[in-house]
Write a sequence for this structure.
């Protein structure tokens, strides 16, 4: 199974800041990488698929990049509603596996 | 609008059984593979099982292989998860999730609201 590792575990930031979250795979997943956002008490929401394609209705401030084993999710200007836990997921190989999550909290 | 509504959760006994259902609407259910994803209290996301659009292909996480069975009824637009031989570590919120294709490419573009399964004696 491919192990997904996210860093940092927690990120304390102020609204308006630009942030970058990292996700690493234990072996190549090509571009088969998705990002999800989960706000407290809410359902996960797909943000990015195929490493860099934004899902429907996702604002342009969210962007994904990378291929192979190293990926990033960038939020260009953090909005108050963006504070949440973010998960990456690889779907290149069975079983699909998630990272442990990065919590983005208000500084 | 895609809508996924889970039901059937609640309290289960160790070694007991529960059956989850997920009623789907707002899309052509029979054209897409479907999955179950779970989240233990305070923990991250874990893929549980997936089924192809026609029900012919199923896949399971090692942690549930041989105990859980995913199935679907395309005439009723409903996804199921039969959970047998329940363990305390199966306690989680279970999400029904839609996949973007008929098979393969197992990421999740729509999610149900989730249903809590608690396994305890």
């Amino acid at each position: 199974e491919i192990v997904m590792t996210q860093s940092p575990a927690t990120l304390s930031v102020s609204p308006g800041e630009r942030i970058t979250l990292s996700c690493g795979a234990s072996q190549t997943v090509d571009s088969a990488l998705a990002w999800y956002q989960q706000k407290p008490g809410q359902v996960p929401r797909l943000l990015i698929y195929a490493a860099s394609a934004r899902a429907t209705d996702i604002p342009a401030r969210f962007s994904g990049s990378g291929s192979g084993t190293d990926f990033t999710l960038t939020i260009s200007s953090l909005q108050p509603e963006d504070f949440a836990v973010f998960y990456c997921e690889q779907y290149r190989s069975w079983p699909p596996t998630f990272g442990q999550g990065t919590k983005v909290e208000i500084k | 609008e895609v809508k996924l509504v889970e039901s059937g959760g609640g309290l289960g006994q160790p070694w007991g059984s529960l059956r989850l259902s997920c009623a789907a609407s707002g899309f052509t259910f029979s054209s897409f593979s479907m999955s179950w994803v779970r989240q233990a209290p305070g923990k991250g996301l874990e893929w549980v099982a997936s089924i192809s659009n026609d029900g012919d292909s199923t896949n399971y996480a090692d942690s549930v292989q041989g105990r859980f069975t995913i199935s679907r009824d395309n005439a009723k637009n409903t996804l199921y998860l039969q959970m047998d031989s329940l363990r305390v570590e199966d306690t989680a919120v279970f999400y029904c999730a839609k996949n973007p294709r008929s098979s393969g490419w197992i990421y999740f573009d729509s999610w149900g609201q989730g249903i809590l399964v608690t396994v305890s004696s």
